[in-house]
Specification:
Layout (H helix, E strand, L loop, with lengths): L4 E9 L5 H11 L20 H6 L6 E7 L2 E7 L7 H7 L5 E7 L6 H12 L4 E6 L8 H12 L3 E3 L5 H8 L3 H10 L4 H9 L4 E5 L8 H11 L10 E9 L5 E9 L1 E3 L3 E5 L5 E5 L2 E6 L2 E5 L1 E3 L3 E5 L9 E3 L13 E6 L6 H14 L5 E4 L4 E6 L2 H15 L4 E2 L3 E2 L2 E4 L3 E7 L6 E9 L6 E5 L8 H13 L14 E10 L6 H18 L2 E15 L3 H10 L3 E2 L3 E2 L3 E9 H4 L2 H8 L5 E11 L3 H8 L13 E5 L2 E5 L4 H4 L24 H12 L28 E5 H7 L1 H9 L1 H19 L2 E6 L10 E5 L2 E5 L6 H12 L5 E4 L3 H10 L2 E3 L1 H35 L1
């Protein structure tokens, strides 16, 4: 019925935070269920699938309907495990509000922050419930402070509303503050408006297991949640596709405007864009495993609709618009190993049903290997996928160990040309390919004049750009982070057909990629590692060996939390190592964190062995016609045959040198350093020269003028500093800079030490003078490695410069540029020797001073 207020409330959390237990408590207190179920007892109301009960985690989003106060609530329980986070993300698209559950014993965890960002992206009003407060390990005050620190001042504890609480609520907006100052009151409507605008995030504390604080949460949802504004006329948002036990296809959707009845005809566009008209055969309101068949549903209700054959998650129906593409995506692909005598082509359509229900599975047919590949989020999902295939299709499959899903982009803009002209066909397309910032994805546009190419042909070309997953030429991986613009094209009045532009468009993309300097991108994880304090150094060392980036570790009562970012290739399988060396006490949370340039590009390209010229399904060649027959033209000769002029201005290409092999003088060198660190002030005093240096001094290089040090590389190569860094990374930095300052003062060198800047969005980096040395913190998104490599490449061959690092990539760059290289271990020995020399000089100076005083006293 449409009586009362209809709300769709989602419940979300990091895995094992207590989300399902809280759901049970909400259903129990509302009178929906008579007995509290428990996850560990395998009898919870919403974990209905056998896989969920066996594993004790939520895998599929499910719903339960109940009434509390004057509100009809559809509670949507979502998976908390990161492997199934795409399911949770899809559910967010239909929520009126969300309850974010946080464990009182663990606080804000890595996946909690991801959920928070997604709720912000989808503009979902959010309530916060801190559970497990009945446990003695819970630090409610600490979590309360952490919420404000991490999520902002809008996180206000509304468990008890007093004058102090009202003041905190009033401070959430200027209008509310003015009203509060004028009247001294905060009404329910004021709180509801602040929550709707995501200016206020009410916080409640309690225990789902003991139902403490849950009734206050339900009361708040009833009083303060405003339903989303209804569309004019019928509208609905599809968020999930599923099948019942009889195999009937169900489209789960939220009605966002008007109503929908059984036997009504639905007009919509299918997944491939074709217009469809289909009759609604049934409407179900699910609550747990059971459902109620109804004749009509109204705005705000969540239902399962039968009879629609080609809907898809994120689709808008009627007045509703489609949702943006999901943020989370898998980063590992697995080859499906089928039982003997099983035909992969027969099983493929069945697998596609699973992809229909979960689009992030990405079922792919590998034509070259004649096999099925599936892209998954992690190990748990691989096990669940195998179980689903067995359950649904009675087939026992295996998955290989998996391989990383790489992507490719380009370094500079390039024009791609595709021509398709076999006999009685014609189409030519010119595309401009330009690199975009990391994480931009693919952007398609047209700047072609309609005088040159009709608008309908242009739309068709853009459609062909959108419809295909375009592959790069390094490893055959999908391309990303570039803008592809249609700049010119030509059709024939008589011979051009729609398929001709498909062929010429695909060929133009590939021809442009073949000309460009391609960059291989690898996926990275954002990680959170919790280890016993005494094993912090081991964990940090492991991450550094993966070429990962580490933020400042934090102490957690006997445990240390290390956060940062690392390549997926390094983190795969690390969980087993962590459990082994921490004897089960360590924890690891991983979340996809986009793609970055691959450090081992050449090695990986050679290992994969992809040959773009032999990939006939993604050819870069063109077809031209002469003497009544078509002939093939290789990609590197297409511009000699093309019918339209190039869109790029013809100009003399500058000579490009990847590395400078010329020597620069001292003046140029100082100019580079002054640009980076400001004017160089020469010291008025130089340390005394020790004439009686031991023979070992022959191993110490002569003064090099400038020494550039990779700070963290040196810290983690030095056992003494590495041990300090395990507890206090800032203290290790301070020790190192002090020692480098003494070294620079004694040797007379200008010294620069470079540290990775903290990964704070928008951080511009900094350059500071510390005593007599320069300290550089790189900007957000720039590593110390990249900064040093940039400086080394600019300086070129100059033996007045020495780079200190054990990073092989930087050492190789230094070698090619011609500057001196010293490993961290060698430089540590040099620093220790220099310290001995300084101590010797000080002792000699003190002795001479003492002798002078004795002589003076005798006189």
């Amino acid at each position: 019925m449409d009586n009362g207020k209809n709300l769709a409330i989602g419940i979300l959390a990091h895995v094992d935070a207590g989300k399902t237990t809280l759901s049970e408590a909400m259903l129990f207190l509302s009178g929906k269920i008579k007995k509290l179920g428990r996850v560990d007892h395998r009898d919870s109301f919403l974990d209905t699938h056998e896989l969920e009960r066996a594993r004790g985690i939520t895998i599929f989003s499910k719903q339960a309907s109940f009434t509390f106060g004057g509100t009809n609530i559809t509670l949507l329980d979502t998976p908390g495990h990161v492997d199934f986070s795409t399911e949770a993300e899809r559910t967010m698209q239909v929520l009126d509000a969300a309850v974010l559950v946080i464990s009182g014993t663990d606080g804000i965890q890595s996946h909690t922050e991801t959920i928070w960002k997604l709720l912000e992206r989808y503009d979902v009003p959010t309530f916060i419930f801190v559970t497990k407060t009945d446990l003695h390990t819970c630090n409610a005050d600490g979590v309360r402070s952490e919420l404000v620190r991490r999520f902002g001042d809008g996180c206000v504890d509304l468990t008890h509303i007093d004058e102090d609480t009202c003041e905190k609520v009033a401070m959430c907006s200027e209008a509310t503050m003015e009203k509060y100052l004028e009247t001294g009151e905060i009404g329910d409507e004021d709180i509801a408006a602040l929550i709707r605008d995501r200016a206020l995030f009410p916080c409640y504390f309690g225990s789902g297991l003991k139902t403490e604080g849950v009734e206050e949460l339900l009361d708040a949802l009833d009083r303060y949640t405003l339903p989303c504004k209804a569309k004019e006329g019928f509208g609905a948002k599809v968020y999930k596709i599923s099948r019942d036990t009889q195999g009937n296809r169900m489209s789960f959707m939220k009605i966002t405007g008007g109503s929908l009845g059984v036997r009504e005809v639905m007009k919509y566009k299918g997944a491939k864009g074709e217009e469809l008209e289909e009759k609604v055969t049934a409407i179900r309101l699910y609550s747990g495993a059971k459902f109620e068949a109804v004749e009509r549903v109204y705005s705000g209700q969540v239902c399962a609709v039968l009879g629609l054959s080609d809907t898809y998650p994120g689709q808008g129906l009627g007045a509703e618009t489609d949702s943006p593409s999901p943020v989370l995506e898998p980063v590992v692909s697995y080859t499906v190993i089928l039982p003997p005598k099983t035909d992969a082509r027969v099983l493929l359509p069945k697998f596609m049903q699973l992809q229909e229900e979960d689009p992030q599975l990405h079922i792919v047919w590998n034509e070259r290997g004649k096999c099925i590949c599936v892209q998954l989020m992690g190990k748990v999902q691989t096990e669940v996928f195998r179980s689903l295939v067995k359950e649904r299709f009675d087939t026992d499959i295996q998955l290989d160990t998996g391989h990383i899903l790489y992507k490719e982009t380009i370094a500079e803009r390039v024009e791609g040309v595709g021509h398709f002209e076999p006999l009685r066909h014609y189409a030519e397309v010119h595309l401009l390919l330009e690199p975009l910032e990391q994480g931009s994805g693919l952007v398609f546009a047209s700047s072609c004049s309609e005088d040159m190419l009709d608008r309908n042909w242009q739309r068709l070309i853009l459609t062909h750009l959108y419809e295909k997953t375009h592959l790069g030429v390094l490893t055959g991986s999908p391309i990303t982070d570039m803008k592809i613009t249609l700049v010119s094209g030509r059709a024939h009045l008589k011979h051009t057909e729609g398929g001709d532009f498909r062929q010429s468009t695909y060929r133009a993309v590939r021809q442009g990629l073949m000309q460009s300097q391609s960059i291989l991108l690898e996926p990275w994880y954002g990680f959170t590692i919790d280890v016993p304090t005494e094993q912090t150094g081991r964990a940090i060392s492991d991450v550094r060996s993966m070429n990962g980036q580490i933020e400042t570790p934090t102490d957690m009562n006997g445990m240390t939390r290390i956060t940062g970012f690392a390549p997926v290739s390094g983190m795969n399988g690390y969980m087993e190592q962590l459990i082994a060396y921490t004897h089960g006490r360590g924890r690891l949370s991983l979340l996809p964190s986009g793609y970055r340039p691959c450090r081992d590009q050449q090695e990986i390209v050679e290992e994969i062995g992809y040959d773009p010229a032999s990939d006939l399904e993604n050819t870069s060649d063109s077809v031209f016609c002469a003497h009544g027959a078509g002939f093939n033209v290789p990609w590197d000769r297409v511009k000699d045959y093309m019918h339209l002029e190039s869109c790029l201005a013809v100009r003399k290409q500058p000579e490009i040198s990847r590395r400078r092999f010329v020597s620069i003088d001292q003046k140029e060198l100082e100019a580079i350093m002054e640009r980076e660190f400001g004017p160089i002030r020469r010291p008025q005093y130089t340390s005394p020269v020790v004439n009686s240096a031991p023979a070992a001094s022959a191993n110490v290089p002569n003064r090099c003028g400038y020494v550039i040090v990779d700070g963290y590389n040196l810290i983690f190569a030095w056992d003494e500093l590495k041990e300090i860094a395990a507890d206090r990374l800032d203290l290790a930095r301070a020790h190192l800079t002090d020692m480098l300052s003494s070294y620079a003062g004694f040797t007379g060198n200008e010294l620069v030490v470079v540290f990775d800047g903290f990964r704070t969005p928008g951080n511009p980096g900094s350059r500071v003078k510390y005593h007599n040395i320069y300290v550089a913190y790189t900007a957000d998104g720039e590593t110390a490695d990249a900064y040093i490599e940039k400086i080394v490449n600019e300086i070129g061959r100059n033996y007045n410069v020495r780079v200190i690092t054990s990073d092989n990539l930087i050492r190789l760059s230094a070698l090619r540029s011609g500057v001196l290289r010293t490993s961290s271990k060698e430089f540590i020995a040099e620093l220790e020797y220099t310290s001995e020399q300084i101590e010797s000089v000080l002792k000699k100076t003190n002795f001479q001073s003492h002798q002078a005083k004795l002589t003076e006293s005798k006189n």
